[in-house]
Amino acid sequence: MGQVTHQKSYSKIYRTWIAMLSRCRNPNDNNYKHYGARGIQVCERWYTFENFYEDMGDHPFYWAQIDRIDNEKGYSPDNCRWISAKENSRNRRTTKRHGGIVQQELIEKIGWTKNQFRWYAKRYGIDWILENFKADTLPLRYNMPVNKDEIIGKTFSKWYVLSFISYKRGEGNRYLCRCQCGLEKEVVGYYLRSGKSTGCHSCAYKRQKNKPNPKKPI
Ligand SMILES: [Zn+2]
Asked: How far apart are CA 89 and CA 83, in angstroms?
């Protein structure tokens, strides 16, 4: 690299420059196979740190990374810009995409957690998620805090919601509810809204018992 004459020899930008040269020019570099071996080169002007620094300057923000605008072209002033690490990972080939949308972006748009997304994807498949996302019929993330006040004082089948009790990870909000029969019990918010729980054990059971059995001959 020659002698170091500038004041930046221990700076972040200097290390960025060294790493860039290394992955393009040093076959022993761990990332060489993705850069130098693929023909990604550093322009001659940037063999000198001062020139590189003059063109790119310091990182505009801490997580900034150098992005090659055209992925097939090398490192040069006209093909490089600073982008956030997040954007950079979205441009990568290995990033998961569904229907042209990056998975992480899709999860953010839906408003689910990553685990909720995985659960639905495993159970119903990505196509189901995409279809319902477009039709805006996906179930909401059930532990969103806005639901807390909306739900209190409302009736869900035989339950009347009295108050909020607690939030439990993986389960969502729990509410104190009063059944039509007068019994008070803790019910998970998701069960109320989805209709999974319609009343206390004996009331919900009674309702089922009175349902006509379609298999039974009349
Ligand atoms: Zn009851």
From this structure: 10
